[in-house]
Design a protein that fits this description.
5 strands; alpha+beta; globular; binds zinc ion; 175 residues; 6 helices; single chain
Length: 175
């Protein structure tokens, strides 16, 4: 059966960037404004399943996706994604994408959260790049997708230690 990320590419749902081997999209359950994913077009499950050539193109995909994030009208997008599909104007740049997934109440809820997020009107140069490489590492879709998560001043109680917080009780070694 076709997995989610193969389907998204085949149907070109919400692509914000692509090169020869990768495409990017915004995560529809973002944990920060601009949270995006870089995904191989080929059905690849784990990071080390990538070929050397794909690795070379991954660098460009990550760099270019960050540029897209930094220039994207995030507030407008989350405003649109906060609405019921029937409220979306046909001229909306997100109309086509929403028409393919009109009933997603979770996306609406997350989009509303983004509009009140501390980072929604800020810019940032700070990111967490992350890949859940295997089920025990949190992978829920068996197709490689590398998260790009913009981080903003004041977006967490304690931003130190970053991805170490995937194991909360061991994250902070400077208590
Ligand atoms: Zn796939």
């Amino acid at each position: 059966m076709e997995d989610f990320f193969c389907k998204v590419y085949r149907e070109k749902i919400g692509l914000i960037y692509e090169n020869d081997y990768f495409y990017s999209r915004f995560d529809r359950y973002p944990i920060a404004p601009g949270h995006a994913e870089v995904i191989p077009k080929r059905h690849v499950i784990q990071l080390f399943d990538l070929t050397s050539r794909e690795w070379m193109f991954l660098k460009g995909a990550l760099e270019d996706t960050v540029k897209v994030i930094e220039s994207y009208p995030l507030k407008d997008m989350y405003t649109e994604f906060s609405k019921e599909f029937k409220e979306i104007h046909k001229n909306s740049p997100w109309y086509d994408e929403m028409s393919k997934n009109p009933g997603d109440a979770v996306t609406r809820d997350y989009s509303k959260k983004m509009l009140t997020h501390v980072g929604i009107d800020k810019t940032t140069d700070d990111y967490n790049f992350g890949n859940n490489d295997g089920p025990n590492a949190g992978r829920t879709v068996d197709h490689l997708h590398i998260h790009i998560i913009p981080r903003y001043l004041g977006d967490a109680v304690d931003s130190r230690f970053g991805i170490r917080w995937i194991i909360p009780e061991l994250a902070n070694y400077k208590k």
